Backbone:
């Protein structure tokens, strides 16, 4: 068999072994890939790839705007805009049966956030609890 093929099988075995001993998958893959690249080519090529690939991944425009969306959401929450948007949605949909849940869904859609967003508890879940909603009701539409 080819030496590179055997090296690949060995790398796969090491990867599975690292995952089995509960090393995070990303770290295990980085380690096995780096060692494999250094063995197949040379350490100089590995260092060159680390330099260019890191810049290439962090310079993608689509991913560079994510921190700005998080910052915008934090500023909106601090300024009270998020609370006002939820109150507006609640005024439009709150009179219907399940209106508070619809308000939460409308708010989440307008903010483009998920239930994991830190301000969600203050903006959406607290008003639902104050309306004496069932304990399972608030998280249903949010998730």
Residues:
């Amino acid at each position: 068999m080819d030496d590179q093929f055997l090296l690949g099988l060995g790398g796969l075995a090491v990867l599975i072994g690292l995952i089995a001993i509960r090393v995070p998958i990303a770290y295990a893959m980085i380690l096995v890939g780096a060692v494999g690249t250094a063995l197949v080519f040379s350490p100089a090529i590995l260092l060159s790839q680390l330099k260019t690939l890191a810049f290439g991944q962090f310079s993608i425009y689509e991913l560079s705007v994510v921190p700005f969306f998080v910052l915008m959401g934090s500023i909106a929450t601090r300024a009270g805009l998020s609370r006002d948007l939820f109150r507006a949605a609640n005024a439009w949909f709150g009179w219907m049966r399940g209106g508070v849940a619809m308000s939460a869904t409308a708010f989440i859609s307008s903010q483009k956030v998920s239930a994991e967003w830190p301000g969600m508890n203050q903006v959406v879940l607290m008003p639902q609890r104050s309306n004496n909603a069932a304990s399972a009701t608030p998280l249903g539409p949010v998730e």
In short: The mean pLDDT is 76.
